[in-house]
Amino acid sequence: MRVIVVGTRGSALALTQTRWVVERLKEQWPEAEFKIKTIQTRGDRGAPPTDRDIFVKELEEALLRGEIDIAVHSLKDLPTEQPEGLVIASIPKRVDPRDVFIGRNGIRRLEDLPEGAVVGTSSVRRKAQLLAYRPDLVVRELRGNVDTRLSALGSGEFDGIILAAAGLLRLDLRNRIDAFIDPKIMLPAPGQGALALEVREGDDIADELAYSIHHHPTDDRTTAERSFLHHLGAGCLAPVGALAHVEEDGTLRLEGVVVAPDGSSMIHGEIEGDAEEAWELGAELARDILEQGGKRILEGLRLEQ
């Protein structure tokens, strides 16, 4: 078997995720040889967050050129439409999809923040839902990798910050988490906490290797969430949240929300059905939310852009 080259971004989190993937692949295929190759994306070079697929495109181009055989992505960064010639071969088991709060000066929960407190986040989705819950707060831009964001909290500029639980858990920084945010307050990004292994269409070896660590319940959940995002006609940077659960009897429950960026308007909905119809359930919930006023919110965003 040839050496399988696994491509990833070069951030500490991306490398940690990719090493985890390679370890799982080696467990399934001890005779295989793997090599990790880091690739810098436009997002790593500081491209504006409004650009599409800024953490993805260079990895996909390397796949198409044959420089790598498997690309490891954070699923929430991956557009819902696949480029021609590439397929998602595997969605490994997801870690906690929720967002988390980290505070300073003994502040341990969103509820403990005083009026006018400053909260840092890089996400329009988080900002919108936070302001819907606590319109008295001040939300300021906070970008960079996990270490950069944690350091910013220590500088005193922020009273608290919001991050994805998954990144902290994968980096073994659970001790830094003060509180997991209830999804009733803040729904995560579609696909948050999950990874995607992308391969070239027709590369049977890479496809089989990647599929060996596929996790069907995670696939069902994230398929519903990403279908919801897709059928809203919104990108991964829109103020859209979604979270699905699969019960033991195979029932999938999907919750979704579209929020005005200033938190002044929120359209929320839920749906349930057979997990085998995850894509259709996401599409149906998107239609319902668009009809309830989500279309107006999303059209307003496009006009602002």
From TrEMBL:
GO molecular function: hydroxymethylbilane synthase activity
EC top class named in words: transferase
Record's GO cellular component terms: cytoplasm
Keyword Transcription: no
Catalytic activity annotation: 4 porphobilinogen + H2O = hydroxymethylbilane + 4 NH4(+)
Residues with S-(dipyrrolylmethanemethyl)cysteine modification: 236
Assigned EC number: 2.5.1.61
Domain Porphobilinogen deaminase N-terminal: from-to ranges: 4-204
Cofactor(s) the protein needs: dipyrromethane
Associated pathway: Porphyrin-containing compound metabolism; protoporphyrin-IX biosynthesis; coproporphyrinogen-III from 5-aminolevulinate: step 2/4
Occurrences of domain Porphobilinogen deaminase C-terminal (ranges): 222-290
Keyword terms, alphabetized: Porphyrin biosynthesis, Transferase
A biological-process GO annotation: protoporphyrinogen IX biosynthetic process
Cofactor binding mode and count: Binds 1 dipyrromethane group covalently.
InterPro entries given in the database record: HemC (IPR000860), Porphobilin_deaminase_cofac_BS (IPR022419), Porphobilin_deaminase_N (IPR022417), Porphobilinogen_deaminase_C (IPR022418), Porphobilinogen_deaminase_C_sf (IPR036803)
Highest taxon of the lineage: Bacteria
Quaternary structure note: Monomer.
NCBIfam families: hemC
Family indicated by similarity: Belongs to the HMBS family.
Extra information: The porphobilinogen subunits are added to the dipyrromethane group.
Function comment: Tetrapolymerization of the monopyrrole PBG into the hydroxymethylbilane pre-uroporphyrinogen in several discrete steps.
Protein name in the entry: Porphobilinogen deaminase
Native species: Marinithermus hydrothermalis (strain DSM 14884 / JCM 11576 / T1)
Gene expressing this chain: hemC
